[in-house]
Design goal:
Layout: E1 8-15, H1 22-33, E2 39-46, H2 53-63, E3 67-72, H3 78-88, E4 93-96, H4 107-116, E5 121-126, H5 135-151, E6 160-167, H6 168-174, H7 184-191, E7 195-200, H8 214-228, H9 231-259, H10 267-299, E8 307-310, E9 312-315, E10 318-321
Parallel strand pairs: 1-2, 1-4, 2-3, 5-7
Antiparallel strand pairs: 3-8, 4-6, 5-6, 9-10
């Protein structure tokens, strides 16, 4: 394999309570990339960790001149941490990956191969089920991607990961995106360019447990679908039209029954009907409310994240240690 040794890579790694994984991950990446001749920088983003992750990053930054860290003021979420790291990146390509070693660093070599072939984006997707995932995570993952593909305007492979390579021309465009509740896996698909997906088998976490709960996964699914499509609004419009039509067709039956002196249905059926349509209206209004809420939050123009400290600044598109 011929490597473009005059190119520089920026590896962005969001980190949340990963104190025992940092040093091991750095060693794994060094073993993978040192033989290639690529220049590279590691940009760790501490996303409000409650353990000694930040101290581990500071120690490794003192040892390795190409290790940089950015500390966020609190836990803003993985995608905002990715955005903070990408904003700092100065390489000819940016690689994003997790800090828990479930994204095998050796896969970077395959990404580089496809990048050299001319692809602008090389993303990964999980091959089969996650052998290390919990039962509910496997189920919710399948439902998430099926629902996303059905209800949104983007199509993604099951198990698409935040383990990807992005060419610098794509990165320049990503840095311009400023939206509330950003979802990079969807943004990457939406951006277009010349893309290729490669399958991978996730490794077992080096240490620690996954921080995504069932509630967080459900919230992610809802916000993601609504961030990439107005289709739910069209669906509830069709549902409303359907039930309105049924209600109109019911009017002649009521009038004929009244004229012929038939007994009117009892209070139980009336209450059941009112409860059903009341619940339906609340459900439809809640969907509209979520969209309105997203518009409200976007209109505030608050920053997506706040940096508390860092050992780096950008000068002329280069990272300078401070």
């Amino acid at each position: 394999m011929a490597y473009l040794v005059d190119k520089k890579l920026s590896i962005v790694i969001p980190s949340h309570n990963e104190e025992k994984n940092i040093s091991y991950l750095i060693d794994q990446i060094r073993e993978t990339l040192e033989p290639t001749g690529y220049a590279y920088e590691l940009i760790f983003v501490d996303d409000g960790s409650r353990d000694n992750t930040l101290n581990e990053l500071k120690v490794n930054a003192e040892i390795h001149s190409n290790v940089f860290y950015v500390e966020l003021s609190r836990n803003f979420g993985k995608d905002y941490a990715l955005k903070a790291g990408i904003a700092m990146a100065s390489g000819n390509a940016v690689i994003t990956m997790d800090a828990d070693l479930q994204h095998p660093p050796q896969m970077i070599l395959k990404m580089l191969y496809h990048w050299e072939e001319g692809y602008d984006i090389v993303y990964t997707y999980r091959e089969g089920e996650n052998p290390h995932g919990k039962g509910y995570q496997k189920v919710t993952s399948r439902l998430f991607y099926k629902g996303l593909n059905m209800l949104s305007d983007i199509k993604m492979e099951n198990g698409t990961a935040d383990f990807r390579l992005i060419d610098e021309k794509v990165v320049k465009q990503l840095k311009l995106i400023d939206e509330y509740e950003i979802f990079f896996r969807g943004i990457i698909k939406w951006a277009g360019y010349k893309q290729i997906g490669i399958p991978y088998v996730p490794s077992k976490r080096h240490t620690g447990e996954a921080s995504y709960s069932f509630a967080k996964l459900v919230k992610l699914a809802v916000t993601t679908i609504m961030a990439f499509s107005a289709r739910p609004l069209y669906i509830i419009s069709m549902v409303g039209l359907l039930f309105s039509t049924v209600a109109i067709l019911y009017i002649p039956y009521v009038l004929i029954s009244y004229c012929l002196g038939y007994a009117v249905s009892g209070w139980a059926s009336i209450i059941a009907t009112i409860a059903f349509f009341g619940g339906l209206q609340l459900m439809l209004m809640s969907v509209i409310g979520i969209y309105v809420g997203k518009i409200f939050m976007q209109s505030k123009h608050r920053p997506n994240y706040i940096i508390r400290s860092s050992n780096v600044v950008i000068v002329d598109n280069d990272l300078i240690r401070i």
